[in-house]
Amino acid sequence: xxxxxxxxxxxxxxxxxxxxxxxxxxxxxxxxxxxxxxxxxxxxxxxxxxxxxxxxxxxxxxxxxxxxxxxxxxxxxxxxxxxxxxxxxxxxxxxxxxxxxxxxxxxxxxxxxxxxxxxxxxxxxxxxxxxxxxxxxxxxxxxxxxxxxxxxxxxxxxxxxxxxxxxxxxxxxxxxxxxxxxxxxxxxxxxxxxxxxxxxxxxxxxxxxxxxxxxxxxxxxxxxxxxxxxxxxxxxxxxxxxxxxxxxxxxxxxxxxxxxxxxxxxxxxxx
Length: 271
Known about the structure:
Largest sheet: 13 strands, mixed
Number of strands: 17
Strand order of the largest sheet: 5-1-6-8-9-10-11-12-13-14-17-16-15
Distance between the termini: 51 Å
Strand content: 25-35%
């Protein structure tokens, strides 16, 4: 069986809701019926067959070719299989992802991994604001799973994050780990302003010292053996994080303005 492939005929003018095109929804459906599925296009509707050339037969392996940042909600509510995006993805990539893998070879718009509860999301390029955050009106962001971003992330990465692991190899914008409830965020590049703003709990692990606001309190330099277990667990992802080995950190706690017990750990790269 070959991967079920959706090749975009041309970039649409408006955003397309691709939430129906997942392994869960397409099992045991013929190519003809898949082509007739209705997709939201802006404030109108279209069909999958009008937008994509559809080929292949294995709905557990879905590929989007010639993909565009107009394709929103790829992998929404997915609980099985693998989706590969050969190109860019729109907003809400992996929205409410429950299990399975999503591999995006390009950039994504905002709200990637929004409301994610489990599974694996890999973004080879950059991603927009609110990575791993909660959707409008929801007080819990990412609640499990693993996200790797090879490039940069926008503002408010991990906003209201409750559980899981986010690894960003590039830079992250303002308000990284804002209102974070639990979980771990690792950033190898620089951060914008107001990191850990209103942080409750959780861990923000960094290689570069950001400009921290006054309610993030310096607790001195520590050797934390648990980091050795964390670094070993990252080795399976074959990313730059696997090279982290230093157990000596500068530790900050906060946000004190919110009675928070979160921690910001800055790796001491001098040792």
